[in-house]
Fold these 3 entries.
Entry 1:
Amino acid sequence: MTRVVVTVMPRDGVLDPQGQAVQGALARLGFAGIHDVRLGRRIELELDGPDPLAQAREMCDRLLANPLIEDFTVAIED
């Protein structure tokens, strides 16, 4: 069994209201020097099969990521 980690993030230039809310909250808590916050998702999959990376990429293409507004990376975790 292979553990695959998928990271889904908003594309550059796409409005990220959750990131903006976190940035504002951090500023109100006194954290200075924060210029941008982007929020995404980390998805951990345990997969069987000969090509778990390809399987995870297909999952992203079909369900886990919205290709219009999100990018994703797929990596095997040791």
Entry 2:
Amino acid sequence: MKKTITTSALFLSVCTLTMAQDASDFKPAAKANNLELNFVPLNGKPIQLTYIRYRRFLSESTAFRLGIGLSYSSTKADSVFNSNLTAGTTVSEDYKKRQFGWNIRPGYEKHFAGTNRLSPYIGAELDLAGQSSKEVTPTGLDAGGTTDQFVIQTDKNKNKGGFFRVGANVVAGFDCYITKHLYLGTEFGFGFQMVKYSDHKMTTTYPSTYPAVTPPAVDPGNPDPSSQGREVNFGPNFNSAIRLGYIF
């Protein structure tokens, strides 16, 4: 919270200083293009890119905006298991996890007169997003019974933490132009989100030589709304980072 207040104070000071410098109009004209990212000056990584936002100015007072975010991660690790049946015997198997996410936010902005460097606006945007994942987790087991051996049990989790989201926001903000093609800005909004969490499917496999396993009794448990079923959110939202953009 302290960093957010300090960052906001620094931002307002820069805007006040730049607006007092001259009377030239720095705001973009029709057909100008715009790209922006997040700026957190007091953070260890001051320049951040959570997703790409593009704007196309249809006129001096209207603009189309589009935010696109894509993320992919892949993890692979060698898991080594020690057998209790035979001293010094080890078995290795790979742990794997892949996760893919996406976010698309098309929208529209209406800009007002403001000042020569300050461009306040209101607008609206859609929010479409999704995430999928796959995780393979091996576990070493000492098989008993007539087959005395050390085997690997493999758990496959599909779409653990996966979801599909649809929403919409009404937004308001402003751009403060430092130079002819560079600006700092902030934005807040009010909207809703409907989230449908993916069905989490887990399967367990054993080697063909493993003794027959009696499935345990199924316990449906208590649904967790943060990872199962559906969720609806409605209220204000705010990006604590400063928007840093340039016109081309």
Entry 3:
Amino acid sequence: MMNRRAFMAGLPLAGACGALAQGVEEPRAIVEQMYKISAGKDGKYSEESAFFRAPARKRWFSKSLVAALAAMERKSKRLNEPILDFDPVTNSQDPSVTRLAITTESATPAKTVVLARFYAQDAKEPVNVRYVFTREGAAWKLDDMSGDMGGKDGWALRKLIK
């Protein structure tokens, strides 16, 4: 027979397991999955980026970011010109990702920033892509991104898509 103290000690673990079973994902794990999807089966980033896939947007992006991207896509269609003309995940039009390292740069209960650092083909400077996550209910959702190459040529997604 289990005593009350042993039962109560097991509750946090049971709660954590239940949260994982319900699909609660941590920001770093989401970014890792985005790169895995973007790399494709061959690992060469030759398939459509996770960023542009509707299921990924629905699952991982904030409602606000989804709405902003939809507005940008309508405007782009109206202008008959792309507003976002590169893949933010690979920070390029011609994806090449080597030596990928994904780390949590900062974390608070309401906001987490994840850094993906990698090298593009023949690049001497690393590419940095930052993913800003916010809480939406109990879930972490991607709300903004920014990137640069060796600290130069920086961009911020929300500013680009306005």
